[in-house]
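Reviewer 2 asked us to include a model.

Predict the structure of this chain.
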Amino acid sequence: MTPVISLVFLISNLGLLTGYYSSKKKMKEIKFANIRKEYMSDSIKETVFLILLGISTIFFLSPATEIVVSMSILTSITTIWLTYWISKYILK
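Predicted model (structure tokens):
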């Protein structure tokens, strides 16, 4: 379950990056600083969503399930920010 949730958020995060890039490419307004700024904004929004989701579900789960959900959320947040860090150097 944990890898599936992490993979879904990673794919959505990369989808946001490529979607924003392709929309700006079509309008001939490619500025990598703006793309990085938008990508950081999206990464922050996804991180806040995951934290709030984790906090809200922890109250209603058993301890064993809490561990799985917490690991899933931490893995997802880590991959989101790792992808942001990598893209920061790619989009120079």
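The CA atoms of residues 30 and 83 lie 20 Å apart. The chain has a mean pLDDT of 79. We have added this to the supplementary material.
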